[in-house]
What we know:
By secondary structure, this protein is mainly α. The protein contains nine helices and no strands.
Amino acid sequence: LSMFIxxxxxxxxxxxxLLLSKVALISKDxxxxxxxxxxxxxxxxxVIQTMQLAYYQAIRELKKMAIIQFYVKFISVVLILVSxxxxxxxxxxxxxxxxxxxxxxSLKKGLKGLLSKFLNLRFKFQYVKTMWxxxxxxxxxxxVGTILYTTDIYLINYLIKDRTEVGYYMFALTIIxxxxxxxxxxxxxxxxxxxxxxxxxxxxxxxY
Length: 208
């Protein structure tokens, strides 16, 4: 059900982003406005990947998840470099979408019989209520975190006219973001253990 809701919710989110792009609220750069509708399609495989990774964490197949991600990301980096070098921005946008689905099909988990599950799905509103009860706080926290994390990018996009300076800033930001690998990796591994012990404070502390 969560996979179904995630994929269906992509449609209105994509349409809103498309509208914001058309009225130049995301960027006033004509090139970005032209290319954004294609780049935003990357959200679809990203949503599916997030669900798959959550499934791997839930069943504690962390090693398998890490191995698959390593090989997929290595191949993706090579493809992105080659495609961007040969076809510039258009090549990057096209390959980022392709590598997204490469990751989806590599992870596989949760995709077996996905279409048949969609066709046979009996929608029950109480499931959505239960999921929303658990997810609303995480949604708010992620939304606020995303806004805080990207506010500087939106500001410099409007305040700095020189695209070269913006590029230098983004390059520096990318280098700094590398340091997020360690806490993110720890979080991926630790989350299922903390969740499993959450009902018992003593065991939770031992897991910590």
